[in-house]
Design goal:
The protein contains seven helices and no strands. By secondary structure, it is mainly alpha-helical. It has two domains: 79 residues, no CATH class; 77 residues, Orthogonal Bundle (Arc Repressor Mutant, subunit A), CATH 1.10.10. The radius of gyration is 28 Å and the shape is elongated.
Length: 177
């Protein structure tokens, strides 16, 4: 795409790209479970990215490869959208949460594994997570030189707990009553 063209030339090229590449993008999005509106959105975003790269001089493609490059951008955008949206799902009226059993985490089991890290670790973790004290205050309480030192120590404490959990091959279910 040559952006030194007159505005009319640029418009013609964009229309040409739309006619040649959009059907391919729509087919791809459809195959991946999307609809026409999503295909239009993805294609328009891809076209904007393509145009911005061309204006910035970052593209040195031949006109025959413009369509393939645009399709590649659209595929990347669709996959990114799909990856970002995969954990989002609408709540519907027929979703009945009352049928779900209530999950109760065993505080005693959790405390047991936290205690394996040692008394000082328990106190630091308690000050941070339970009492919600700022790192600066925790540093003063426990005689650390600064916030960074407390952060490192808290990390080490958590790693001790993680290592214990890993050594015992524990899973989430092991902490449920």
């Amino acid at each position: 795409m040559v952006c030194n063209n007159a505005p009319a030339e640029t418009e013609k090229l964009i229309i040409k790209l739309y006619k040649s590449a959009f059907p391919l993008v729509a087919k791809y999005v459809s195959k991946m479970g999307g609809g026409l509106d999503e295909a239009k959105d993805i294609f328009q975003d891809a076209l904007v990215i393509y145009y911005e790269k061309a204006v910035a001089g970052n593209l040195e493609l031949q006109k025959a490869k413009d369509k393939a490059y645009l399709l590649g951008i659209a595929k990347h955008l669709w996959l990114k959208k799909f990856r970002d949206d995969k954990n989002n799902f609408p709540l519907t009226d027929d979703l009945d949460l009352e049928d779900e059993p209530e999950i109760i985490i065993s505080t005693n089991k959790v405390l047991h594994y936290l205690e394996t890290a040692g008394k000082k670790c328990m106190e630091i973790l308690s000050a941070f997570y339970y009492h919600k004290l700022p790192m600066k205050d925790i540093a003063g309480l426990f005689g650390y030189g600064g916030e960074r030192s407390v952060t490192v120590q808290k990390y080490k404490c958590l790693e001790k707990v993680r290592e214990t959990v890993k050594q015992n091959a524990l899973a989430y279910e092991d902490f449920v009553e």
